[in-house]
Design a protein that fits this description.
This protein is of the alpha+beta class and 530 residues long. The protein has 8 helices and 21 strands. The strands form 5 sheets. It has a 9-stranded mixed beta sheet with strand order 10-9-11-12-19-18-17-14-15, sandwiched between helices. A hairpin with a 2-residue loop joins β2 and β3 (137-141).
Length: 530
């Protein structure tokens, strides 16, 4: 007998579980997913830690760099030395007052300026390095101070460098000082030199400066630190003629005389100095020498004979063709308001002397030597020489007449080569606008780029160089005025037109180069001169 069984299974009617095989396969998959999740969380935490460490390192470095940049460029009190000065060598940062005091300084853990440790930073260290940098390439270290110091502050965590900041400290622009042309302007020394003026030294200003346009005359006195009343009176008289009169002691060394003579146009020797102290120190200088001390006649090679003194008040002009006496007629000339001691040479006068005036019945008293003229022994004069008529320490300067002062003034001018004789074919300084016969007709106007820095009033309108409106566009006149003018750029006038030539390109710029660079902003950095 055949039986049949029919079983109907309704789809979805049974709830099944995971089989053993399925579980075995799923476990590794879950493990892989869990590992990936844990790695992601770990990487995120590490990244957060690094960001936190980096931020803290940057703040530590920035804090110290700010402190350093607030200090002076160089030691403001003691004699400047690179590094710590004597009172700062104990490492006490509270004593640091210039940036290079911080060189080779480090602290772990970091400290405040007063030496107190910053809490919770035991794993940190800050260190500083300071070097002289080349202004034209700040990446280069140089062996001497050129006005730029590069400062590097490094923050380390567990001995690993995390942040490094680099900054520059510059000496800054030098202060203004009086600059003498025909007039006076307060300028920086280098700008003064470019414009053909004479800087009067640090701390000077035009309010307290008298600009002298005459020659510089080295005045030999008994003691430049304590000149006599008569020497001060002579200095004041010479300065009243617009001459510049530096002093030098008769006992200064030969080297000091040589250096001083190189800076002046002529030399004037006081009657009061000690002849044995000065000796022959001026006998070989090429500048002109005006002598008022008869005891030096032999040392200077003027005469082999002795000088004699005579009390009187008049002299006889015997040669008025020379510049010194050209304003007088020949014959008697009153030199003093009362009898004073004058000097005469009766014998031994060098053959190259030109006698301009005599006293006491024809005795030589005022005489000169042109450069190359024969001195005693046949030696050629190395420069112009003048012997004045008066020659005793008791001579009262206040007794000199106006004519005598004229002789003294013109003697110095001639010795310095500053004499002006219209019609002699030589265009002397000061004749440019007064003597067409020697200098020709003046120019119609100053020429920018040609005549605006030559120290002359070429168009004779009373304004010299940059003071002339025609020169307002000349670079020599505009550079240094604090404005980046259209004719200037960061290369031709860095004083007025700033630039940045290092760092990322977007931060670099050069004012005045004609390119509107991003870092120049709205042009305010460049006074509108991109």
């Amino acid at each position: 007998m055949t039986m049949s069984v029919s079983i109907k299974i309704r789809s979805g009617s049974l709830r099944g579980g995971l089989t053993l095989i399925e579980m075995i396969i799923s476990i590794p998959l879950v493990g892989i997913a869990l590992a990936a999740a844990l790695n992601t969380v770990g990487a995120s935490r590490i990244a957060q830690f690094k960001v936190s460490i980096g931020r803290e390192a940057h703040l530590l470095a920035q804090d110290l760099m700010t402190e350093i940049l607030l200090q002076d460029y160089e030691e403001p009190v003691d004699t400047p030395e690179f590094g710590q000065e004597a009172m700062e060598e104990d490492g006490d940062r509270a004593e640091y007052d210039d940036v290079d005091d911080y060189d080779d300084w480090s602290s772990s853990p970091p400290e405040y300026k007063d030496g107190m440790e910053i809490s919770n930073l035991d794993d940190w260290e800050r260190s500083v390095a300071v070097v002289w940098a080349d202004p034209s390439d700040i990446s280069q270290v140089v062996g001497s101070d050129q006005g730029v110091k590069r400062i590097t502050v490094t923050a380390r965590h567990n001995d690993v460098p995390v942040a490094e900041l680099v900054a520059l400290k510059t000496i800054g622009l030098p202060p203004l000082e009086a600059c003498c042309f025909d007039d006076c302007e307060d300028l920086r020394a280098e700008v003064c030199a470019v414009r053909g003026g004479t800087a009067q030294g640090p701390g000077s200003n035009c309010a307290g400066t008298v600009c002298r346009t005459g020659p510089a005359v080295l005045f030999v006195v008994t003691d430049d630190a304590n000149p006599t009343a008569q020497e001060l009176a002579r200095q004041a008289l010479i300065e009243s003629w617009d001459f510049h009169v530096p002093l030098i002691s008769d006992h200064a060394s030969q080297a000091e005389f040589a250096a001083a003579a190189a800076e002046v146009d002529a030399c004037y020797i006081s009657v009061a100095i000690a002849a044995n102290e000065l000796g022959t120190k001026l006998s070989t200088v090429s500048i002109g020498v005006v002598n008022a001390n008869p005891l030096l006649l032999d040392d200077l090679g003027f005469s082999s004979g002795a000088a004699f003194y005579v009390r009187l008040s008049v002299a006889d002009v015997v040669d008025n063709t020379h510049f010194i006496t050209s304003t007088f007629a020949t014959g008697t000339l009153t030199l003093s308001t009362s009898d004073q001691w004058f000097v005469q040479v009766t014998s031994g006068l060098a053959s190259g002397a030109e006698v301009l005036a005599t006293i006491d019945n024809g005795k030589s008293s005022l005489f000169v030597f042109v450069s190359g003229a024969q001195l005693v022994g046949g030696t050629p004069a190395p420069g112009r020489r003048v012997q004045l008529l008066w020659g005793d320490p008791s001579f009262d300067l206040n007794a000199l007449t106006e004519d005598a002062q004229t002789i003294m003034k013109r003697a110095i001018e001639w010795a310095a080569g500053m004499e002006k004789v219209c019609g002699d074919g030589k265009c002397d300084v000061g004749e440019e606008c007064d003597c067409a016969a020697d200098c020709g007709a003046p120019a119609a106007f100053e020429q920018p780029g040609v005549t605006c820095d030559d120290g002359m009033d070429n168009d004779c309108d009373g304004a010299t160089d940059c003071a002339d409106i025609n020169c307002s566009a000349d670079l020599a006149c505009s550079c240094g005025n604090g404005t980046c003018d259209p004719a200037e750029d960061c290369n031709t006038c860095s004083n007025d037109c700033p630039s940045r030539t290092f760092g990322k390109p977007s931060g670099q710029y050069c004012c005045g180069n004609g390119i509107a660079e991003l870092a120049e902003g709205n042009g305010s950095l460049c006074d509108g001169n991109y």
